[in-house]
Amino acid sequence: MKKRILTALVAAGLLVCPAVAAEQGVTDSEIVVGEVNPYTGPPALLGVAHTVGMKLAFAEANAVGVNGRKLKLLTEDDGYVTSRTLQSVRKLIDVDKVFAITGISGTGQSTAAMSILEKAGIPTIISVAPATDQFVPPRKNVFVIGQVYSEGIRQLTLYLADKNPGKKWAIITQDDDYGLVVREGFDKAAEEKKINVVYSAKYKKGQSDFSSEMLRLKESDAEVFLAGGIISENVAMLKELEKLSYKPVVGIFWPGRVEAVLKLAGPASDGLYAVDYVEPLAGPAGKAFLEKAKALLPENEFKSINRYTESGYAAGRVLVEAIRRCGKDVTRDCVISELEKTDNFETGVMAPISFGAGKRFSSQKVQIMQADYGTLSYKPAP
Amino acid sequence: MRSGDFKESYASLVVLTDSRWVWFWSAVLVATLVGAPFAVNAYLLSLVTLVLITVTGALGLNLLTGMTGLISLGHAGFLVLGAFAYAVVVVKYKFPSLAGFAAAAIVPALFSIAVGLPSLRLRGLYLAITTLAFSYIINNIILDASSITGGARGIAVQRPEFLGLDFSSDQAFALLCLFVAAVALFACLNIRRSRIGRAFMAIRDNDIAARTMGINLQWFKLYAFMTCAVMTGLAGALMGIYLSFVSVEGFPFLLSIEALAILIVGGLGSALGAVLGTLFVILLPEVVRILFGLIGGSLEAGLSTGVHEVKSIIYGVIIILFLRFEPRGLVGVWRDAKRLWVHWPLRY
C-alpha cells in the first residue's frame, strides 16, 4: 500500500514538475513579451511607431512559428511619466508574467527601471532611447540597441563642419538631460574642429515661440545652425527662420527625424541635415522594409511607421533570433546567453548588430541624411 | 449600538473618535496594511507604496488648500525640493539617510516662507498663480545649480538604511512609507482638533472674521505653508527613493493638478477625504483596466495602449460630476453611508 502511495506521489510529482519548472511567459504554444512605451500624448509618436516595428518582427516570425511557438506582444502605456513606467514594468513582470521586456520609453524612464529589470533578471532589450546609464556598468540581462545621443550629435557636427569649413555656427538646446547630451556631443566636435560658435542658447522644455531666439540667431549671422529641439520645437524654429527669410544650413537629431516634421515645417524643411543609425525610409533598405511592412501590417499601423518602427523591428528581430536559437527549451538563461552571442546580425534596417561577453551596447554606426520636402522623406546625404 | 451623536463635553467634541468600533476597525486596517507587503505580489505592492506616498503629499496639500483655503498650484515644487534635498544630502554629501529625511522636511519648509509671504496679501487665483510661478522658479534653480543637484541629469538614489534597519527590499520600503503616511495622518487629525486647526478653518471660512477674533493671519498662513511643505517634502523624498532616480522630469506640473483633483474628489478639508481621493485617483486606472478586461475583446486591447488617456477622460468627467452633484467629495458619500447605517430605518 505504502509503495503504491509512493508511486502515485512520484507520478504526481512528475506531472507537476514541468509546470513548476516552466519558464514565466512560455507555454507550449506561445511566448509572451511585454513592451512599455508612451502611447498617449505627444511622445506617442515614438511609442506607437516602435511597437508597430516590434509587431512586424513578431508577425514575420509567427508566419512560420518559433520552434512551434507563436510570439505574443503585451503593451503598457506609461504616458512618458517615470512613476508609470515603473508600475508598468512591474505589472508586466508580476501580473502578466511576460518572458521578456522591450522598449522602454524615454531615457530617464528606462534608466529608472534598471534596478527592477536587473533584479527580475528578465531578458530586456532597450531600443527606444539608448543612454550610457543603461549599459554602464553592463547588466547581465539588459541589452541596448542603437547609439548614444552625444555620439550621434558629434558625428553630425563633424560632417557639417567638414562640409562648411570656416563658417559661423549657432546652437539651441533644450534645458533638460536631452539638451545636455546634445550639447556634450556638439562641444566635443566643436573642440575637434575648432568651430566658431557665434550664438548659443537654451530653451525651456515645452517652449513654443522661438521668435526672439531666431531673431538673435539671424543677427549673429550664423551660417550653420544645430536645432536641438525634438519635434514641435524644431518645426517652430524652422517656421520662424522661414518668416525671417533666413536660410542657414540646419542640422537636427534623430528623436525628431520623423516625416511628420517635414510635413509640419513645410518647404522650410527642405535640405535639412539629420543624423540617424536606422536606414532612411526613402533609401533602398527603407523601401524594402516598407514593402515588408505593407504585407504584414494593418493599414492604420502602416501609417504610423517612422524611424522608431525600424528600431523596434530590429529589437524584435534580435530577440526572436535569440529565442529561436534556444530551440524548444526556451529559458531566460538561454535567451540571455544567445543574445550575448549576437554577432553581426543583419536586420536590414540598420548596420549589423553585435553584443558580446560584458558588451551590452550594440553601438550602431550612424549615417547623415538630408530631407527632401518634395517627397516628404529623408535620403542619404551626398 | 450607537443611536446618535450627542456630545456632553467640549472634550468629546474634539476627541479623535468616541467609537470603539472605529478604533477596532482602524487597528484591523493597520494590521492589514502591515501584513499586506508580505502577502501581495510586487506589482500590487508598488501600487500600495505609491498610494502611501501620495497620501502623505495629499495630506500636506489638504492642510493648506482644504483646511486653510489657500489654493496652491506649486505642490510639485515642494515635492521636487524634498526629493532633491534628500538626494543631495545622502548621495552627494554622504550624510546618513535620516539627515536626508530631515533635509527633505526642512528645505521645502524654508522655501515655503518665500512663497508664503506673498500669500499674506494674495488669495484665490492670484495666489494660485504665485505658487505656480514658485514651482517653475524651483525647477530652474535646480537645473541651474547643476554642480550641487546634477542639473537636468538628476541624481540616482538608493533605498535608505537607518537605525539599524535596512529598507532595501520592496516590503521594507512599503512599511517605511506606511509609517510616514500614518504619522502624517495623525498629525493632520490632531492639527484639525487643535487651536491651530480651528484657526486654519476660520481663515478659510472668513479671514476678516478670523482676524477680528484675534487670529494672527500672517503667522497661521505661514504655518500652513510650512506644515504643507514639510509633509510634501517628505513625500517627495520617498517618491525619489521609489523612482530610484531624482530629476526635475520626474515631478511634472501635472502632479500639482493631480493633487488638487485628489482633494476635490476626496473632499476638501478632510484627512479621510485626502486618503479616499488618493485611493480613487491611483487605483482608477486599475479599476478601469479590470472593468474593460471583463468586457474583453478589442476594447481591452485598445485600453492596454491608452489606459491613461481613458483615465484622463474619466478623471475629468468624475470631477465635473462631483462638483455638480457631490461637492463634499467621497468623504460626503462615506458620511451619508455611515449615517444611513447608524440611523436606519430613520432618515436622520
Name the CATH superfamily assignment of the largest domain in chain A: Response regulator
Q: Which strands sit side by side, in order, in the main sheet of chain B?
A: 1-4
Which segments of chain B are poorly predicted (pLDDT under 50) over 5 or more consecutive residues?
none
Span between termini of chain A? 85 Å
Tell me the series of helices and strands of chain A, N- to C-terminal.
HEHEHEHHEEHEHEHEHEHEHHHHEE
Which series of helices and strands of chain B comes N to C? Answer: HHHHHHHEEEHHHHEHHHHH
- Largest two-chain interface: A-B, 33 and 31 residues
Class inferred from helices and paired strands of chain A: alpha/beta
For the termini of chain B, the CA-CA separation is 16 Å
The helix content of chain B, as a percent range, equals: over 70%
What would the CATH topology of the largest domain in chain A be?
Answer: Rossmann fold
Q: If you compute it from the alpha carbons, what radius of gyration of chain A comes out, rounded to the nearest whole angstrom?
A: 23 Å
Strand line-up in the sheet with most strands of chain A: 7-6-8-9-10-11-12
Average pLDDT reading of chain B: 87
Counted beta strands of chain A: 12
**Number of helices, where a helix is a run of at least 4 consecutive DSSP H or I residues of chain B:** 16
Structural account:
The complex is a heterodimer of chains A (382) and B (348). Chain A has 382 residues and is α/β, with parallel strands linked by helices. Chain A folds into 2 domains: 201 residues, Response regulator (Rossmann fold), CATH 3.40.50; 127 residues, Response regulator (Rossmann fold), CATH 3.40.50.2300. Chain A has 14 helices and 12 strands. Chain A has a 7-stranded mixed beta sheet with strand order 7-6-8-9-10-11-12, with helices on both faces. A 5-stranded parallel beta sheet of chain A has the order 2-1-3-4-5, with helices on both faces. In chain A, strand 1, helix 2 and strand 2 form a beta-alpha-beta unit. The longest helix of chain A has 20 residues. The radius of gyration of chain A is 23 Å and the shape is elongated. Chain B has a domain of 243 residues. Chain B contains 16 helices and 4 strands. In chain B, a hairpin with a 2-residue loop joins strand 2 and strand 3. Chain B is globular. Classes of the chains: A alpha/beta (382), B mainly alpha (348). Chains A and B meet through strand 2, helix 3, helix 4 and helix 7 of A and helix 3, helix 11 and helix 15 of B.
